[in-house]
Design brief:
Elements: H1 8-18, H2 27-49, E1 62-67, E2 72-77, H3 84-92, H4 96-101, H5 105-109, H6 111-118, E3 129-137, E4 144-149, E5 155-160, E6 166-173, H7 188-199, E7 206-215, E8 223-231, H8 248-257, E9 265-274, E10 278-286, E11 302-306, E12 309-315, E13 327-332, H9 341-346, H10 348-371, H11 373-392, H12 398-402, E14 407-410, E15 416-418, H13 419-425, E16 433-437, H14 441-445, H15 451-455, E17 460-463, H16 466-475, E18 477-478, E19 481-485, H17 496-508, H18 510-520, H19 548-556
Parallel strand pairs: 1-7, 11-13, 16-17, 16-19
Antiparallel strand pairs: 1-2, 2-6, 3-4, 3-6, 4-5, 7-8, 9-10, 10-13, 11-12, 14-15, 14-17, 18-19
The protein binds adenosine-5'-diphosphate and magnesium ion (MG).
Length: 559
């Protein structure tokens, strides 16, 4: 039979899988089980929304069978199955998220990162298997098909026999070598513990034939071994479990299993609300910025379940843009299953949930800032820019929430400080919250414009991101204190005598300044005697609302 080659990207990924030195190979089982569960979800969802399909819960399960003699591990499900086209499209081409990964060649070199980062799904089977055979029959189809591949050289698809709708995946487990053992993946105890660890909350039974030692009937003290089909997972979704029963590791595993991120979450929130609106949610604040976070490709959203059934894998309406980094899921009994994306957006329940979630995230971030400063700073490093964009793009009341979460580098403290900390330290005679804009903290330390302010003993906030000053302009004030750039015309601290002195100097040197102005032409509006310099001969100041740094940003923006 002729082999169809994999698409280039799939090929590279497969290659990585096969030669992976990834220590966490066991996750292949999590991936295959989660695909099986997704496939059953699809039938279940169809049945709930289509009266012609009958869903008997007992008929839906996942089965894992290890055959040591033949070195095969079989994962079968009674899910929706795949047509020939689907086999071709789903297993021949790597999932969409995968195509992104090859953007950054350097990141792609180390298989470890990739596997962790994207949870490569189906292909992870090749970490433990030489040959993968998928036999599947789609719902509503008479023919079954078999897909087979032994890795990079491609795959074959042929017609096959299969009685029931669903999918069966047979892995020919690799032979152990001197430094690597794969035998584990054929051991009952090992498989059970992997299933327990990663797939316990799967809603459908994951069954295995388990060896039981039993007293032999009719004989004293003798035991016999019997194979008994058992359900390995508890089937209670993690979000329905009691918080007290769950460990940090459980939450981390759920995060990994769901591919919410490639890092370990910095913080999780487990929310159960039972009031005007009822819902359960598990939310995560990631530790690191996803590589595509500040690009158009990044899609915000939470998984949305209606009473345990997944209805949308990324519901954007549940999160405000400034919290777009939050990952996780929401399950509510109050949402209808038969709901379209457009209607959902206007759904009152959903809006209530979204508002509630927003408040929960805000209070968690505030708590983090108060009680776990270091963690908060890690968070802020990853997502602070997003919060500042949030302030900048907001015309409503959100800035009231966000302003307390902002941090900037302080000239005096030499570390990140909040606006509240700044204001609470202000001496009585200080009128404004001062800031300086530039490319780095080191450069700002040397900026002539900061001299006078620093000499007065005032603290200066250093802005090194483009968005900083724009965000501050939106805020205008914090606790009734105005923000003022150190390069603004009026710093509010020049003493009276120096003012007079400056005026005198200006008249004395009028012809010199006129000459300078003429030479500089359009480049400046005026040449004046400065009252703010100590060690530097000249500096530039801005006139009006838009500072020099903002002008640079505005000019750099595409029209
Ligand atoms: P993902 O699950 O993220 O979509 P995978 O690589 O795990 O990516 O799977 C690719 C696709 O193959 C799935 O989206 C699904 O359409 C299909 N698939 C995989 N396993 C099964 C299965 N057991 N039953 C039905 N379809 C499956
Ligand atoms: Mg998958």
């Amino acid at each position: 039979m002729e082999k169809t080659p994999f698409k280039a990207e799939s090929k590279r990924l497969l290659d990585m899988m096969i030669h992976s030195i990834y220590s966490n190979r066991e996750i292949f089982l999590r991936e295959l089980i989660s695909n099986a569960s997704d496939a059953i979800d699809k039938i279940y969802y169809k049945a709930l929304t289509d009266p012609n399909i009958n869903f008997e819960k007992d008929n839906y399960y996942i089965k894992v069978i290890a055959d040591k003699e033949n070195r095969t591990l079989t994962i079968s499900d009674t899910g929706i199955g795949m047509t020939r086209e689907e086999l071709e499209n789903n297993l021949g081409v790597i999932a969409q998220s995968g195509s992104l990964m090859f953007k950054n060649e350097n990141e792609a070199k180390d298989g470890h990162d990739i596997i962790g980062q994207f949870g490569v799904g189906f292909y992870s089977a090749f970490m433990v298997a030489d040959v993968v055979t998928v036999t599947t029959k789609a719902l509503g189809s008479d023919t079954a098909f078999r897909w087979q591949s032994s890795g990079v050289d491609g795959y074959t698809i042929e017609a096959a026999e299969k009685a029931e709708v669903g999918t069966e995946i047979v892995l020919k487990i690799k032979e152990s070598t001197e430094d690597e053992t794969y035998d584990d993946y054929l051991e009952e105890y090992r498989l059970r513990s992997i299933i327990k660890k990663y797939s316990d909350f799967i809603r459908y039974p994951i069954k295995m034939d388990v060896t039981e030692h039993r007293p032999k009937e009719g004989s004293e003290g003798e035991f016999e071994e019997v194979l008994e089909e058992q359900t390995i997972n508890s089937m209670v979704p993690i979000w329905r479990k009691n918080k007290n029963e769950l460990t940090d590791e459980d939450y981390e595993n759920f995060y990994m299993e769901k591919h919410y991120g490639f890092d370990k979450p910095l913080k999780h929130l487990h929310i159960s609300v039972d009031g005007a609106v009822r819902y359960n949610a598990i939310l995560y604040i990631p530790e690191k910025t996803p590589f595509d976070y500040y690009t158009k490709e990044y899609e915000k959203g939470l998984e949305l379940y209606s009473n345990g059934v997944l209805i949308m894998s990324k519901s954007p309406d549940l999160l405000p843009d400034y919290y777009s980094f939050v990952k996780g899921m929401v399950d509510s009994e109050d949402l209808s299953l038969n709901i379209s994306r457009e209607i959902l957006q206007q759904d009152k329940q959903l809006q209530l949930i979204a508002k509630n979630i927003k408040n929960k995230i805000t209070s968690e971030l505030k708590r983090l800032l108060k009680d776990e400063r270091e963690k908060y700073e890690t968070f802020y490093k990853a997502f602070g820019t997003q919060l500042k964009y949030g302030v900048y793009s907001d015309y409503g009341s959100n800035k009231d929430v966000l302003q307390d979460l902002l941090m900037f580098y302080s000239s005096k403290e030499k570390k990140m400080v909040t606006l509240d900390e700044y204001v609470s330290r202000m001496p009585e005679d200080q009128k404004y919250i001062y800031y300086a804009t530039g490319q780095s903290y080191e450069r700002l330390d040397k900026l002539p414009q900061t001299e006078l302010v620093s000499d007065k003993g005032y603290e200066i906030l250093y802005f090194i991101e483009d968005v900083d000053e724009f965000a501050i302009k939106m805020l205008m004030t914090y606790k009734e204190k105005e923000f003022r750039s150190v390069s603004s015309g009026d710093l509010g601290i020049e003493a009276d005598e120096s003012q007079k002195q400056a005026e005198e100097e200006a008249t004395e040197n009028k012809s010199l300044f006129d000459e300078m102005k003429q030479i500089l032409g359009d480049k400046v509006k005026d040449v004046r005697v400065s009252k703010r310099l100590k060690h530097h001969p000249v500096c530039l100041t801005a006139d009006g609302e838009v500072t020099i740094e903002m002008e640079k940003v505005l000019r750099a923006m595409p029209n």
